Amino acid sequence: MIFACRNQNDLLRIFTFHFNLEVIATLALTPEVRLNAKNQGVSLFELAPREAISQSLRTLGERLAKRSEGLAKPKITWFDRLRGSS
Q1: Deepest of 14, 68, 70, 82, by most Cβ within 10 A of its Cβ?
Q2: Is the pTM of this model over 0.90?
Q3: How far is CA 16 from CA 5, 11, 13, 21, 49, in A?
Q4: Which stretches within the chain are classed as H helix?
């Protein structure tokens, strides 16, 4: 789920109270940077590597990669489930 909140505290309150989920990252709302990257057909990292959105996405990716290290690989991948294979 993606939520756009003007206040980071609102987002934390929503997820903690309603969904009982930990918020591991918040991303900057930078619509003009995202739109420029999409229109030019380049990644955010190529177009604006120093923007807050690019840096926070990089940090989130690194954090998720570290969390998944050492986990057992699932027998059925998400792609197999998508195709209906069991």
Answers
A1: 14
A2: no
A3: 14, 8, 5, 6, 31
A4: 8-14, 31-40, 44-47, 52-68, 78-83
Residue with tokens 């995202």: 34
Token representation of residue 1? 């789920």
Find out whether 8 and 26 touch, Cβ atoms under 8 Å: yes
Cα–Cα distance list, 76 to 3, 64, 66, 69 (Å): 30, 20, 21, 18
Query: CA distances (Å), 68 to each of 12, 21, 31, 36, 74, in order?
Result: 23, 18, 30, 32, 12
Joined together, the tokens standing for residue 44 give 């955010």
C-alpha span between 62 and 68 (Å, rounded) = 10
